[in-house]
Amino acid sequence: MMEVLPGRCVPIAKRELLWAGSAGLACWLAGVIFIDRKRTGDAISVMSEVAQTLLTQDVRVWVFPEGTRNHNGSMLPFKRGAFHLAVQAQVPIVPIVMSSYQDFYCKKERRFTSGQCQVRVLPPVPTEGLTPDDVPALADRVRHSMLTVFREISTDGRGGGDYLKKPGGGG
């Protein structure tokens, strides 16, 4: 993922990662924006500040819209915070899709073995002129386009394996 990110790109992560030992410290030092998902009011105010930063400091934000990891071979419903942020700042959304890593990640052991993933950058989705009322449809539209690509690149034999084709493989 780091290879496809533009300069001045700052990730947003759940606040719990701040307390994840050396990984949390590395995130903090890297400028990760932490969101307390349990305190919605705080998360909304942080997102408002981020929107202003996007506009005034030419910063990009990297958000995982599912909000948490998913290991069932598909994508979870998207949380709408990132979409509200994009609409508020009137900046485009650039969807980035990574193929499944289920074939070479053991969830039980939390361990990766060797494997291959594909990353595909989709065309930007404009938000100019959209309002908060447009956010649900925007999130659904982006999720649908990302899910279509996720299924394609996770089953073509070049990045993510064929688990989606197996009976009971989800997706």
Automatic annotation (TrEMBL):
Pfam families: Acyltransferase (PF01553). Residues 1-101 form the Phospholipid/glycerol acyltransferase domain. It is an enzyme of class 2 (transferase). GO terms for molecular function: 1-acylglycerol-3-phosphate O-acyltransferase activity. GO terms for biological process: phosphatidic acid biosynthetic process. Keywords: Acyltransferase, Transferase. Pathway: Phospholipid metabolism; CDP-diacylglycerol biosynthesis; CDP-diacylglycerol from sn-glycerol 3-phosphate: step 2/3. One of its GO terms (cellular component) is endoplasmic reticulum. The keyword Transferase applies. InterPro entries: Plipid/glycerol_acylTrfase. Its EC number is 2.3.1.51. SUPFAM superfamilies: Glycerol-3-phosphate (1)-acyltransferase (SSF69593). It comes from the Eukaryota. This is 1-acylglycerol-3-phosphate O-acyltransferase.
